[in-house]
Amino acid sequence: MMPSTRTLNLYLFLVATCMILVALYMQYQMNLNPCYLCIVQRVFVILTGLIALLAVIHNPGNKGQKRYAAATCISALAGAAFSIRQLWLQSLPEEKVPACGPPADYLFDAFPIAEALPMLLSGDGNCAEVQWTFLSFSIPAWTLLAFTAMVLLSSYQLLRKR
Predict the structure, then answer these.
(1) What is the pLDDT of residue 125?
(2) For the chain, which residues make up each domain, given as ranges?
């Protein structure tokens, strides 16, 4: 018997929480500085986890649960897209990697937000650097794997009959 939708949402929230804890450990204990795309992926991990937590707390009926499942699925898909973008940057030959850009605070000071945001979201040379691997997979590869699991779990909740 499959767990209830409330339990599955709790699992989604716990996965997102563990992902953020690992990211913070890597940043503050292992001194791995996140690039722009890493930060965007963190935003989508947090968003997906918060939507799942809201679903746990709210515990809606079938229609509400489908809406929460759709929202977590969309959020996880968006995060996966940024993971794929970073993996693509990491796969480029060195001569094709874009130049490293200025710090984010400079971009927001020098450009209107409408111009600065697309620059950040596209990533730069910093995003192409592989800082750490485990079992030959880089951080965005592991993040993509986690986002994929979140999408599958959300899709299951979206399609399952109550």
Answers:
(1) 64
(2) 5-91+104-159
CATH of 5-91+104-159, one of 3.10.620.30, 1.20.1550.10, 3.30.429.10, 1.10.443.10: 1.20.1550.10
Element (H, E) at 133: strand 133-134
pLDDT score recorded for residue 113? 78
CA 51 to chain centre: 13
Running along the chain, 162 residues long, what does each successive block of 10 average in pLDDT? 89 96 95 88 96 95 93 97 90 76 72 76 72 88 97 93 72
Q: What is the pLDDT of residue 111?
A: 77
In angstroms, the CA 146 to CA 140 distance is 10
Within 92-112, residue ranges assigned H as helices are 104-110
Distance CA 110, CA 120 (A): 13
Q: What's the token pair of residue 93?
A: 């030959």
